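call fold target=UDP-N-acetylglucosamine 2-epimerase domain-containing protein
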Amino acid sequence: MIKVGILTSSRADYGIYLPLLKALQADEYFELKIIVFGTHLSRFHGYTVNQIEEDGFVPFAKIESILVGDTSNAISSTYALTALKFADFWGNYHFDFDVVFALGDRFEMAAAVAASIPFQVKLAHLYGGETTLGAIDNIYRHFISLSSTYHFVATESFAKRVYALLGEETSLVYNVGSLSLENLLTLPLLSIDEFNDKWGIDLEHPTILVTVHPETVAFQKNQNFCTEIAEALLKLSKKFQVVITMPNADTSGMLYRRRFEHLSKLSESIKIIENFGTQSYFTCMKYSKILVGNTSSGIVESASFNKYVLNLGDRQKGRLSNDNVVHLPFDSDIIYRKVFEFIDLEYNGNNIFYHSKPSQTIIKILKDNQ
């Protein structure tokens, strides 16, 4: 039996992990232990550990370390606190794992990984080799890759970047495609009526799905960026229903939260959601006319829903994307105009991040390497 740990710090990584979690839970060859921390345990961010438990998973550990503040000092302090708490956790439990998965590029994920290094925890990184020049996550992603033994990437070009980062050839870099796209084949989505009953949002109305996170490299520009997107969304709300999902716990995140909450008071057409969960988020994406923002879901999943995406600013700069992604600056007039240009168009290309059943590929690799 292989004892597998899963580090999950947010709604975003949990949604991507989900097909792998289900596959590991169903395979008697594995003992699954989910380690929950970060915004999952924050009431302010929706306490999304509830979603994990509602899906039938029992967390092995819950480690609280998130501070509510969004200043650089608060982010740095949260990193330090997370590393400190995980120092105790790994000290007590590092022998309980044969391999531990760390997904993505979040600062709190990097802190948990940093604390594991002296204990020589064998890590598996999902998804290294990518580039997001407008976010400090770019640094954390590379750090997690450097700390890991196994590397599961989404495209062959990302595999080459991991090889270059490591500075050596290794047989433990695998192109498996995007786990999140497996959700689209296995997760039953809600009907429009079911969605309306659950959220009070009628997707029969032409809808724009919006997710905007702060830019954490040029974070001093967020005030201006926030103003530009707010002006565009308020104008668009006169013609369309605007559904906004709240940003991550990042530097300047509160700036966007407060502005979006204010927008929802100015227009009944603007709806604010803290956390949809994977099923409802993909349902909203399916029935929306277009996506606007700077989130990775716009880069990865939207093409499989045949949606165009207006990707704003530099947060995802340098990242490989499908042809449905339209890159724009934070400029209210340009955003407004481009929505009307693309909202009635359907993307009919392929999704470069798609591979068949990546969860089963990962499981086979783990078994073959034991």
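return ok
DSSP finds 14 helices and 13 strands in the chain. The mean pLDDT is 93.
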